[in-house]
Amino acid sequence: MSVTIETLEKLERKVSLSLPIETIQNEVDLRLKKLAKQVKIDGFRPGKVPMNIVAQRYGYSVQYEVMNDKVGEAFAAAAQEANLRVAGAPKIVEKENADEGQFAFDAVFEIYPEVELGDLSQVEVEKFTAHVNQEAIDKTIDILKKQRRTFTQKAMDQSVANDDRVTVDFEGKVDGEPFQGGQATDFQFVVGEGQMLKEFESAVLGMKLGESKTFPLSFPENYHGKDVAGKVADFMVSLKKIEASHLPELNEAFVKSLGVKEGTVEGLKADIEKNLEREVKSRLLNKNKQVVLDALVKQAKLDLPKSIVQSELDRMVENARAELKQRGIKDADTAPIPEDIFRPQAEQRVRMGLVVSELVRMKDLYAKPEQIKEHIEHLASSYERPEEVMHWYLNDKRNMAEVEALVVEENVTQYVLSQLKVIEKELSFDELMGQ
Prior knowledge:
11 strands; alpha+beta; Chitinase A, domain 3
């Protein structure tokens, strides 16, 4: 086998290879002989089918299979000999001007880029911190109480107040015409919780049982209903029922209803604090990780392999189709989805993947067995039966791969943070949670 390698542009390479036709034909004959012992053809006993009939029926597919295998082996050997890190699958093109007795072809492909990580020592980033305070614990208790509230019907002469649950009929029109989603009968919502637009809730406040009211409502420009986004509708609402909400008392009975083992208010607060601290740690980790990775990638210099970007684009388009199908969109499999809308995100993902991989390789930031074990123990600690959760992780390759990836990301985050100029920024609990 003879090999020549040519640089086309940036990461693109071309390998010219040739293989003796005799080698290919010998392998085809060998596979056809094996096949002849197994195939079943009407009129012949098993293993007694003449070779010319076997070749006539299966020769083309076997030759195609052998060609693929031999070309693949030849290309892999050539790439290994030249120490080429191949990115994506090569494009194979047969050459017409091959020497006699030879099968010649060109393989055009890309290689992984050299990654220049850049100097991180002069880069400033904000590292976020946050803490669980008493206010956060009290808010969580309020949420738990709201989840277990009860409602009782209000008297005829009482009006709607915040936190009341109301039942209404309503109809909205834009320019005198009804619109989709603008009508409902016996519709129920709790006033003040943001389920309805603020103007709608304000109109209902103060109404009494049996009353009707008309009012204008301005839909915001970014409203999910595109037909009415940015428009003003005229609504008529009729109040059919008002129910006052009643929150349970914070006592042992309430605590036990939540399944807290200790069954005490202090035990509940300790449980909430522990869970909130776990959530804060997770969110801080993700937030700081993103800041660090963005800084790392911004400093790095590299060319992107087009084939890997294309693979990422194909995956993103496929995910978009699956999402459309899940929403019940007709013809989701054939709907035109321009891949260029995903290109910036695809390129950023590929860039980040290549940069992180290079840093992990250079600084030996691979996940260590003890780190993986510690991470799984941490994950399992939030469950009632941590030993079962640990068994679930340890005995599933996919779960273990996910944990390993998370540990590597944590290693990368900590290493890059140690190289950067870090300015700590304290966030309130609500800021971190996006409240």
